[in-house]
Input
Amino acid sequence: MAVVELADLPAACPPNTPFVGLDLGEKTIGVAVSDLTRTIASPAQLIRKTKFTDDAKALFRLMDERGATGVVIGLPLNMDGSEGPRAQSCRAFGRNLQRLRDVPVAFWDERLSTSAVERFLIEDLDLNRKRRANVIDRTAAAFILQGALDRLKAGFSA
Output
């Protein structure tokens, strides 16, 4: 299966199955999972990066446990909308996932998601640096997935 546009992701997956959202960092992968109605995203897990195949196995294990059928990967675009090395790395991650399993993958613009989440964790939850480090990537993944879910619910005609 090829990478799909976000608008086409629901049709590429069985109904009433969750999606996973990924925030790909240098050392970790934040993972979030939606509910069955694909309305609410929740932080799920943090995968510490080792080798790609091991990382993919951990992700697929979580997807199997949750019954998830689609993947939304945060795409870190530059502020002008162009793609730099990090965005290209995220696209390569998605393609490599598909080489291991036929799973629909879509990308979602994640500009400023980590910054927004960090600001929330500091200002609203008053978490110290150590506690933030333990939750920021999973929470950023939920922020990314929630943005994609909200966009799907709103439709693409607007």
